[in-house]
Amino acid sequence: MFELTPGFIALLLGTGLIAGVINTLAGGGSNLTLPALMMMGLPADVANATNRVGVFCQCVVGLKGFDKHGKLERTDLKGILIPTLLGGLLGGLSASFLPVSLLKPVLLGTMVIMALLILLKPSTVMPGPDELAGQVKGNPKAWIALLLAGFYGGFVQAGVGFVLIAALAGVLRYDLVRANALKLLCSAAFTAVALAVFIWQGQVAWIPGLILAVGTMTGAKLGVGMALNVSQKTLKWFLFVMTLCASAAALYF
Fold first, then answer.
1. Which residues in 227-253 are b (16+ Cβ under 10 Å) and which e?
2. Is 1 a member of any domain?
């Protein structure tokens, strides 16, 4: 049972704000919000479910911001969303029924792999300036990458932005700004599916979830402005630093 004190409200708003910025620019914001929810006394499975309220609202705000500036690529939305949604449904069902003890090793393993890829193979997240983005149709590697990203996001959420960027920038070769916009679209899609599963299972604590959402939406709005005004190289190194932070968070928590 949790107690919603003024201190916890401030904690949720503050961590939500920072997480909204981080998730819009890269990923890993849930490494802040999940512990904040658990500090309130929410069980790990309820915190995991409740966190999706803030994530979904943040994605909607960030997506509108990118679209307003013409950075949402629309040529292959169906191809991108189908495997992502399917993966999100499977991941959400898995998270609802499998032991929560699996969350930590899955998160840690994924973050370490992503950090190594960004450091040793920068093209994974930063296509060359002359490269053209491809489509999912006829590209089984992209379909599988998006399916796995959706599954991971539905299962654990924390750090899914890194996995989606690897699929969108690394496999489909979108530049990092457009990859971030599409990342938010995909995150909103599979988060909605996973959230529906968690609501069905009665695992969402709505009051802290909505308070958190106020912070994440504000952060997302700030994050869009930052993403539009920094270089691809800066975004790449921000991604790398955030994956290291996510790895450390997985070890600690």
1. beeeeeeebbebbbebbbbbbebbeee
2. no
Asked, for residue 20, whether it belongs to a domain, the answer is yes
pLDDT band at 10 (very low <50, low <70, confident <90, very high): very high
Contact 186, 150 (CB under 8 A): yes
Q: Which domain holds residue 229?
A: 6-252
- Residues in CB range of 22: below 8 A, 6 or more apart: 28, 29, 32, 219, 223, 242
pTM of the full predicted structure?
Answer: 0.81
Residue 16, SS3? helix
**201 falls within a domain:** yes
Ranking 29-33, 94-98, 103-107 by mean pLDDT, the lowest is 103-107
Number of domains making up the chain: 1
